[in-house]
Amino acid sequence: MQKYPMFVDGRNHEPAGGEWFLTDDPFQGKPWAEIARGGQRDVDEAVEAAHRAFPGWADLTASARGALLRTLGDALAGHAERLARLEVRDNGKLLSEMHAQLSYLPQWFHYYGGLADKIEGTVVPLDKKGYFAYTQKEPLGVVAIITPWNSPLMLLAWKLAPALAAGCTVVVKPSEYTSASTVEFVRLLHTAGLPPGVVNVVTGFGHDVGAALVAHPLVRKVSFTGADTTGRQINAAAARDLKPVSLELGGKSPNIVFADADLDAAVNGVVSGIFAATGQTCIAGSRLLVQDTVHDEVVRRVVDLAGTARMGDPADPATQIGPITTPAQHAKVLDYIDIALAEGATLALGGSAATRPECGDGWFVEPTIFTGVDNGMRIAQEEVFGPVLAVIPFSDEQHAVEIANDSRFGLGAGVWTSDIARAFRMAQRIRSGTVWVNTYRAVSYLAPFGGVKDSGIGRENGIGAVHAYLEDRCVWINTGAETGNPFVLR
Ligand code: NAD
Questions:
Q1: Same domain? 343 vs 233
Q2: Which of 325, 461, 464, 465 gives the lowest tally of CB atoms within 10 Å of its CB?
Q3: How far apart are alpha carbons 119 and 140 in whole angstroms?
Q4: Looking at the domain assignment, is residue 137 inside a domain?
Q5: Ramachandran angles phi, psi of 255, nearest 5°
Q6: What is the rounded distance in angstroms from the CA atom of residue 324 to the CA atom of residue 337?
Q7: Measured between alpha carbons, how far is 301 from 279 in angstroms, rounded to an integer?
Q8: Mapped to the 3 state alphabet, what secondary structure does 428-469 carry?
Q9: pLDDT at residue 482, rounded to an integer
Q10: 76 is in which domain, residue-wise?
Q11: Is 248 marked active-site?
Q12: 3-class DSSP assignment, residue 352
């Protein structure tokens, strides 16, 4: 069985405790590789390596850092196929989705590489005579990046590229369920010329390795993507040491279809919103809000399209719905189906584990649609993180806004309408980090992404993301001859 050691200070790193754990192939339903189980000593070594590398990395000219980032992007493009297949094996993601993600990911390194030497300080237009003041943007130091299992490399790149452009060094802790691609990816970055210690990987479990990383005194920032419950723990732990955090958490995003929408496009967007990536995405459009006059037609068409989706081997380019990544998540999705039935929702499609022959021994769930859902039900309020859609009818715009905003989450929202004025009104009124109009699940390195309410703190992507890894230093210079009164504020 293949073994994945950690990667620290530019080298493979065996676990100090000598322990390894198994990682599964979700389509085969069995382990395929061993991952190093890190502990406190491994975390210490990785953070110290990042701390040692920090002055050299931060002192490179921003242009040199930028050029190297662009080289890393090119290296990633050159190894996209290998990394895609690795993720399909370890995570069960569709090969077609991984091709799309990995052919796009180099853009993060090219964009933030380009941005690195455009980060400028300011001259402060002071209100006091005899002084000159300017600001400089300074990298925060060692950043801990903690990622979930659903899109390991994409979510890592969203954090890593701006952190490196800013001049920070990094220790990454990938999910214990999908660590292999991160280890391979960071190895690749070093082969492409990244200096040792600038990016390190410790693998292992959240409660020990993840928590130790967050608590490490040399870590100066935590950038996390994952469940909101974990995000709260990390925020509380980081607060003890006054460490800033970026938290990209979950969602229960509404996909809102008005009667005046292009229903072909809307049905396509609804199916894409909840069944792409097997619903295992933070931006899953897991609540379909549909205007009552077109409710039956939209439901029928969504059921028809989802019902014909091809399930099976994620490595087959024709497959449209792959397995659930972990047995625990598989059980959780099935639990939510039982909860929805017990709450009185009506099953319109699916509702069970998939036992089709093409699903083999994998952890599959049939695409599942519930109608007759009330927004107060758990199936409408809690994140399932699987292929389960809750359909909620609404009467008019005001009603749609009320239902959409009646959620503790606020990550994404879709609005389907042919009325441009309504589109603007809805975009203004929905409390959500992203609103998509007549599309869904579109992301870009250029477009800020993140949540409001329980969906998180901070934004990734776009120019603003690099500032999450920087802080201002303000320098005052006395250009006057006077020595002031020592007992008075100058
Ligand atoms: P998770 O919170 O269980 O784990 C995420 C990471 O945190 C893992 O690496 C885990 O080992 C680590 N971790 C766990 N406990 C920790 C602790 N106490 N201290 C430090 N690290 C700890 O999440 P998951 O199950 O891997 O991912 C699914 C969740 O992620 C969903 O809720 C989903 O919505 C969310 N998500 C959000 C986004 C986004 O951008 N908003 C993107 C993808 C996934």
A1: no
A2: 464
A3: 14
A4: yes
A5: -115, 110
A6: 15
A7: 19
A8: HHCCCCEEEECCCCCCCCCCCECCCHHHEECCECCHHHHHHH
A9: 78
A10: 2-249+451-474
A11: yes
A12: coil
Nearest CA to ligand 1 atom 20: 210
* For ligand 1, mutation pick of 143, 150, 182 (most atoms within 8 Å of CB): 150
Structure tokens at 401: 């806004």
Q: Nearest to residue 278, comparing CAs of 216, 226, 321, 235?
A: 321
Closest alpha carbon to 246 in 153, 138, 154, 163: 163
- Asked if residue 201 and residue 113 are part of one domain, the reply reads yes
Reply yes or no on whether 282 is catalytic. yes
What 8-state DSSP symbol labels residue 195?
Answer: P
- Give me the pLDDT at residue 484, please: 84
> What CATH number corresponds to the domain at position 201?
3.40.605.10
Average pLDDT in the 243-264 region?
98
In this structure, the answer to whether residues 318 and 244 fall within a common structural domain is no
Residue corresponding to tokens 């990042």:
50
> Does residue 395 sit in the same domain as residue 279?
yes
Q: What's the CA gap between 141 and 144, in Å, rounded?
A: 10
Residue at 92 is within a domain:
yes
d(CA 381, CA 445): 29
Burial 162-199 (b: 16+ CB within 10 A, else e): bbbbbbbbbbbbbbbbbbbbbbbbbbbbbebebebbbb
Dihedral (CA of 411, 415, 420, 424) sign: negative
Residues 196 and 318 placed together within one structural domain of the fold:
no
Q: Which of 439, 86, 128 is nearest to 265 (CA)?
A: 439
Q: For ligand 1, is residue 452 a contact (CB within 6 Å)? A: no
Atom of ligand 1 nearest to the CA of 204: 11
**CA dihedral angle for residue 176, residue 180, residue 185, residue 190, rounded to 10 degrees:** 90
Q: Give the residue, out of 230, 240, 434, 460, with the most ligand 1 atoms within 8 A of its beta carbon, to mutate for a pocket test.
A: 230
**Can you tell me whether residue 173 is helix, strand or coil?**
strand
For the entire predicted model, the pTM comes to 0.97
Rounded CA separation 261/418 (Å): 5
Decide: 86 in ligand 1 pocket, CB within 6 A. Answer: no
CATH number at 370 reads 3.40.309.10
